[in-house]
Design goal:
This protein has 13 helices and 2 strands. It has helices at residues 2-44, 60-67, 69-101, 107-114, 122-133, 141-144, 176-201, 206-214, 219-230, 232-248, 251-256, 268-278, 282-313, and strands spanning 47-50, 53-56. The N and C termini lie far apart (56 Å).
Length: 314
């Protein structure tokens, strides 16, 4: 009897602790690849490298970062890039998804071809787009630099400077390289956005759409008052995924423009790379990483809050 009781207690203890042991390997991996680098970055943001080792400098790295003119310029470039990238990608993704939803001929082939940009790495996509507009032998260089098509002197995407700013020091209008970077990044992210929106469109009840058509609703009214409200949670998720990707992505900038011409395509993520790995200013780079992480956290909390509000309103 005592053996049976002890065996039962042992099995009960194993069942109770089993979830812990199952999740332990994942927790250890997360601790190594995420939490430790995060804490180390936070520690570095208050340190400065000296010949004798690391020296605690308090908030000097943040202060020096805020006094950099390049930091303020990179914020402006990041805002322009995010607005152009998000608006263009979301608009094209929604339009293509609406077309594919109509079950057009060979739609399966189109969806397969649509995935091609998604399977290409950022670095490779940036190199391909760079080869298209290189001043010496780019595929589109002859067209872009034709004065009859683009007066007065043609367009050189990778070398033309930015036009004078219209609003103080805010870098608008952007340089041709920034516009080209937005186009390349949108092309790269378009498959992900289109597939998500297309999946959401498949969930819109046909009965609701047919009822609205019987009541005399036009195509624009159907899209505005029925389709978009019903797929709004997916659109919100897509929106913030695009913003997070645009905020943190550096591969496309690195391989396409390298921040140039000059500093006209310096995004915050690329400035982080320059400070950390080109200038070896690890303290300021860590401070910038903390600021970018705070922005990412705010965006994530915004997604969670909006989706919770949508769930309660259903």
């Amino acid at each position: 009897m005592n053996k049976a009781v002890r065996a039962g207690k042992s099995q009960s203890r194993i069942k109770k602790n089993l979830p812990f042991w199952l999740i332990l390997p994942t927790a250890i991996i997360l601790l190594i690849v995420q939490f430790y680098p995060a804490f180390y970055t936070a520690w570095l943001s208050f340190q400065d490298r000296t010949p004798d080792g690391w020296e605690y400098v308090g908030t000097d790295n943040f202060r020096l970062l805020f006094t950099r003119g390049l930091f303020a310029e990179s914020i402006g470039h990041t805002i322009i890039f995010l607005v152009g990238y998000v608006v263009l990608t979301l608009s094209l993704g929604f339009g293509i998804a609406m077309l594919l939803k109509q079950n057009v001929r060979l739609s399966g082939v189109y969806i397969t071809l649509l995935f091609i940009p998604w399977i290409i790495a950022d670095i490779i996509a940036g190199l391909v787009f760079r080869l298209l507009v290189l001043p010496e032998y780019g595929l589109f260089t002859g067209i872009l630099q034709d004065p009859t098509l683009f007066p007065p002197d043609g367009i050189s995407v990778l070398t033309d400077p930015r036009m004078p700013a219209l609003i103080g020091d805010f870098p608008f209008p952007p340089a041709n390289a920034m516009i080209y970077l937005i186009l390349a990044a949108s092309w790269r992210a378009l498959p992900f956005v289109t597939i998500l929106i297309l999946a959401a469109l498949q969930t819109v009840p046909k009965e609701v759409v047919e009822s609205a058509r019987i009541d005399g609703a036009s195509g624009i009214q159907l899209t505005r008052f029925i389709t978009i409200p019903l797929i709004l949670p997916t659109m919100v998720v897509v929106l913030f995924n695009l913003m997070l990707g645009g905020m943190n992505g550096v591969g496309m900038v690195f391989s396409l423009t390298s921040g140039g011409p000059g500093t006209t395509t310096y995004l915050l993520s690329y400035l982080l790379y320059v400070l950390g790995w080109q200038r070896l200013e690890f303290g300021q780079a860590s401070a910038l990483a903390i600021l970018i992480a705070i922005v990412n956290w705010i965006l994530i909390m915004g997604v969670l809050r909006i989706t919770r509000v949508d769930e309660r309103s259903v």
